[in-house]
């Protein structure tokens, strides 16, 4: 009896468990079907959304491209209507950069060139954009950039028509700016115009080339100063100075005049006495002419150095005072943040060793200080090399230059200091 009831209860439990399992399976299949229907519905909605988003993205992309094209056409119209003869400007700028005078720029309002440079900068930025066919990219029919395709395929016709003119105008503006900067470096100290220099620097700022242009100008000033030093402190110049003084002294004694010792001798003086007097007169004449020649050569060297220094000082002063009228960005800060050229590295190392916290921003007149330090370093090396020339064969003649060089240098430093303080440099 009890054993039979137990077996019957176990069988009932198994049947009940099997029924619950079947119900769960049917419910799972039902839920799976619902899930598939929901997933299919969401997938269709997602597909429609992706399609709409893609179309909207292409529309926005095309809209942005059209805005760039319209801006390009606007800037091109501004340049063409500026009244500047870019062909003549390019030709004259090239001539000025090679040593001629930039006469055309005198008659042209530099503000026109500055505005043209601003438009050129915008056009170059737009033309370099991949969506307008810049850097090898082409534009397909939907407005999206593509790096594939043959030249001319998918190009924007209006952009390609404007590209050659934009490139020629950009080249003309750059050549004109280079001519202005070259002319500025060749102009004498008293003829330098901070206004013209500021306009030229503004052109380079618009073109994004201000630091390079500024350092090129400083390098030109350094080259000018080194040229003056090379023309004075070299073996040939020292020897030529002595030879010229000797020749002039010999001529003066031989032709008589104030240097003729025999004109003051009484009649009947013997030849030995006359020869002795002539030798003494020659020594006096030689010393006088050596002093004059050394003073003249030292003065010429000092004027060359002063002229180069004041040109760099003018550049420093204009950079410090000039700011872009739109961005309010100071030109000197733009140059200061750019890397210093390699040729000025020794001067920079020397300068930063003395600067507070080795911070170049704390160095007063940073650009002029670099120029002056580098010039002095080069001058020191040149004089040391001159003293050692041919095992010191002309060291005595080089040392004899010291009084004249010292006087000329002190006079030059005083003149440069006065100009810097007066703001006329």
What's this, in brief?
By secondary structure, this protein is an all-alpha fold. 75% of the residues lie in helices and 1% in strands. It has a two-stranded antiparallel ribbon with strand order 1-2.
Structure explained in plain terms:
The protein is an all-alpha fold and 425 residues long. Helices cover 75% and strands 1% of the residues. It has 14 helices and 2 strands. The chain has helices at 2-80, 86-97, 103-107, 110-127, 157-186, 194-206, 210-232, 235-255, 271-321, 331-337, 345-354, 366-387, 395-399, 402-422, and strands spanning 138-139, 145-146. The chain has a two-stranded antiparallel sheet. A hairpin with a 5-residue loop joins strand 1 and strand 2 (145-146). Helix 6 crosses helix 9 and helix 7 packs antiparallel against helix 9 (271-321). The protein is elongated and about 170 Å long. The model is unreliable at 101-106 and 136-153 (pLDDT under 50).
Please tag this protein with its features.
2 strands, elongated, 1% strand, two-stranded antiparallel sheet, 425 residues, mainly alpha
- The count of helical stretches stands at 14
- The helicity comes to over 70%
Low-confidence stretches: 101-106, 136-153
- What value does the average pLDDT take? 82
Q: Strand portion, in percent?
A: under 5%
Biggest sheet character: 2 strands, antiparallel
Query: In whole angstroms, how far apart are the ends?
Result: 128 Å
Walk me through the topology:
Elements: H1 2-80, H2 86-97, H3 103-107, H4 110-127, E1 138-139, E2 145-146, H5 157-186, H6 194-206, H7 210-232, H8 235-255, H9 271-321, H10 331-337, H11 345-354, H12 366-387, H13 395-399, H14 402-422
Antiparallel strand pairs: 1-2
